[in-house]
Amino acid sequence: MKIKDYIGIGILIIVIAAMPDLVGNDYYLGVLIFTAFNCLTCTGLCLLMGYTGQISIGHGAFIAIGAYSSAILTTKLGWSPWTAMGCGVLLAAITAVIVGIPTMRLKGHYLAMATLGFASIVHIVSVAAVDVTGGPSGISGIPRLQIFGFALNSDTRNFYFSWGVVVVGLYLAVNLIHSRVGRGLQAIHGSEDAASSLGVNIAVDKIKILVLSAIYASISGSLYAHYVLYIDPGPFDIMHSVLLVTMVAVGGLHNIWGAITGAVLLSLLPEFLSFLSEYLQGIGIRYQTDYDTLIYGSILLLIMLFLPEGLFEGLSRSLKSISGFRGKLAGRSSERAD
Amino acid sequence: MQTNILKLDCLRKTFGGVVAVDDLSLSFNKGEVTSLIGPNGAGKTTVFNLITGFLKPTSGKINFNDTELNHKKPHVIAAMGIGRTFQNVQVFSNMTVLENVMVGRHLRSRSGMFFSSILPPMLRGEEKRIRSSAKERLALLGLDQYADVPAGSLPLGNQRMLEIARALALEPTLLFLDEPASGLNARETVVMGRLIQKIKSMNITVVLVEHDMELVMDISDKVAVINFGKLIAEGTPNEVQLNPDVINAYLGT
Ligand SMILES: Nc1ncnc2c1ncn2[C@@H]1O[C@H](COP(=O)(O)OP(=O)(O)OP(=O)(O)O)[C@@H](O)[C@H]1O
Ligand SMILES: [Mg+2]
What we know:
The complex is a heterodimer. Chain A is mainly alpha-helical. Helix content of chain A is 78%, strand content 2%. In chain A, strands 1-4 form a two-stranded antiparallel ribbon. In chain A, β2 (146-147) and β3 (150-151) form a beta hairpin. In chain A, α4 runs antiparallel to α10. Chain A starts with a helix and ends with a helix. In chain A, 45% of the residues are buried. Chain B has one domain (4-95, 156-251): Rossmann fold. Chain B has a six-stranded mixed β-sheet, with helices on both faces. In chain B, strands 2-1-4-5 form a four-stranded antiparallel β-sheet, covered by helices on one side. Classes of the chains: A mainly alpha, B alpha/beta. Chains A and B meet through α7, α8, α9 and α10 of A and α2, α3, α4, α5 and α6 of B. The complex binds adenosine-5'-triphosphate and magnesium ion (MG).
């Protein structure tokens, strides 16, 4: 139901409003800003993967396109950040169409392979085209964003702004899901044959949703560039693309809130792990950073084994069945009372 | 004088060496129930897939109300008013029963991606119309009590009904049903028969593929029999039942 989603967005807004005071520490606020960027990308990716059933292992490339467009156009050509961001969106949309057209007509996992290849090309270009991208040393001196002369020059401001964008992105996605277009996308996921027998133009709709998800990723990349003020190819490698897919899958593919849950949890996990390592070191156990990967992997494995529909659906179903069980107990005792 | 709604002219489909449909010429009368029968592997589903654009003919022509359907995509053919169900049921199991039928209203509504995401209140009227006409179709098929249930959790009989409800939401003038009674029990089959007659009374031309001969003979105006992709008999149910070629095809070589 749409109402539930709107309530969810309302709760999210309240949490966002309270967060900077609760955190009160610029480092963690920074972590939460990066979390917002991941949430934004995962919202778009969830529309593509969870709702339409098309897998992309290359969304890091669309983030890179946004980030590099913003960085290059502002630092080298002196464009305004907003125009640069718009250009990034346009470029991401065009490349999405180019990647999408040859693969979307085919059934199966061709898109996954094509996006994977595409992502490695973008990564190689970002490393090798030193004149344009700065190569491995990257681009620095990226200006901050200004909103009507109001500079995003503190972590609190950046926090509110980036989460504000997430809320808008979520609102648009939720509306789309519950519309004629969104039902068409879910139908494609359910059965391409049945969807097209009812008049859904599956090839075109698949490309449209790939473009939309690329736009989400590109905006997230631009925001990243204007927050960090420096970019290099590092954060946009294949591993980041895979991590994004994992975030969406861990949270629960068929639910936009699952994607958000997954993005938040996996963005915060490194912080929990560093807590853990400090704690263990404190009590004299040697903790190696390699363990991070081990713990990461185990968490994923456990979730996939025990909550295959994802954390969000899985946990809410368990909660429901617990309350249903309580309800039954209550019902039985009232019968007895009769 | 009967008018044709659909005409197949020397339609042929080969898969490698297999000739699935062998120069089949056949016409379907407007407003009637025509059954296409034949042994397993005779090519019935292939004929459906050719007409509805899921397969490209090797040669031959398909004419629907004097428009050629060859080389048109399934969604374009759907837009021309041709609906279908699938032999292996294909409900959208990730969606509710009502949402399944709402997808059937896809072509009867217009809203695009932009307004759907940015200004949903503008589309409230259309959304309401989609919902209410989808509910009408559910009521027609007696599925209204399952509206909010995930479609994948319905028993097979109801899933077949749901597929028909969904296809009817398209408001087709021509409807293809591929074995709607397979997997149904005797009582459900009777209900299905009545439903098909009701669909006919709604001025929808029905083409039926079905192995349940009692059902076929009961509700068909015309029966066409194919074997190895070739037409071997055509006529009223009575004529076809007495045809020696048909008896041969069904009773063995
Ligand atoms: N996509 C395909 N690729 C290769 N061969 C196919 C394909 N579809 C159908 N065939 C072959 O074409 C022939 C006709 O199959 P079809 O499914 O049309 O038969 P049918 O009359 O619907 O049979 P049934 O009553 O079992 O559903 C069979 O020999 C089948 O193996
Ligand atoms: Mg068949």
